[in-house]
From TrEMBL:
Record-linked InterPro entries: CT_A_B, Cyclophilin-like_dom_sf, PxpC
One Pfam family per UniProt: CT_A_B
UniProt entry keywords in alphabetical sequence: ATP-binding, Hydrolase, Nucleotide-binding
Record GO terms (molecular function): ATP binding; hydrolase activity
Domain Carboxyltransferase, chain residue ranges per copy: 25-298
Protein name in the entry: KipI antagonist
The species this protein was found in: Afipia felis (Cat scratch disease bacillus)
Amino acid sequence: MSVLEVIAAGPLTSVQDIGRFGAQRYGLTPSGAMDRLSLTAANALVGHPLSAPAIEIGPIKAVFVARGGPLCAALTGALRFARIGDKPCPLYRTFMLRDGETLTLDAARKGMFSYLAIAGDLKGESMFGSFSVNARAGLGSPYPRPLQSGDRLTYGNVASLPDRTMPPPVFGEGAFRVVPGPQYDEFGKSTELFFNSPWQISPASDRMGYRLEGPSLTHAGNFNIVSDGTVDGSIQVAGGQPIVLMKDRGTTGGYPKIATIISADLGRFAQTRPRHTLRFAEIDVAAAQQEARAFHTLLQSLPERIRNA
């Protein structure tokens, strides 16, 4: 067995897989990777099932070291400088981290989340069908919290892989596409304001929700409704300012929801940095379903895009 030891990691660094499903009726949110496309790409490069757990690394600098043996890995997602010792470490390409070598990831330059997949079986216990960390709920494995200095991730059946690479996969660009939310009609003229205005993501955002800064929206019921269900990408409006519900959201909410970011665009939205200006564009449910199918096809095609470097 080989070990990956955490030397330094920011508060948004944790183990995540595709998420846990089937228990939202009990109040258990799915959690999972913020950017499913980047997670899937990392897993494909190291030969894992596309839904397998990897290390989700936030925008702050992170440092890891191999212990007890070599590790074959791949790094995807946010654009950042990475190095093994003093040598550059490529993104979207497998690499070897030998016993005692240090992998350093500088702060992200573009995007928010990187994904580090290790070729081997991560030792831990699946909780409700997933390794994904949800710190608020105390769930996740091998640590039910963000990773911190001194943590050790153990891998069995460690594999040595050929030097393989993949073009960074891209899906969608421009305005983030949304479908109308369940309380859309109660926002009146504020729907036009929502679609015609630029928005920025507040630094006061996390895996539970991204707060948007922009014009104040109004609602016929003064933002108070009977709690109803939420989904990933629900845009609820509290006191005039929208909040996009992300992977660690609550399963219900008592604020009106003006729209929902389509699933195919949610990972791209999650990679958007604070203070970046963005806009939303409305599409209908049929178009959203078509985009979801196209996104699923892209995910399934990633292993076919791998080439020997």
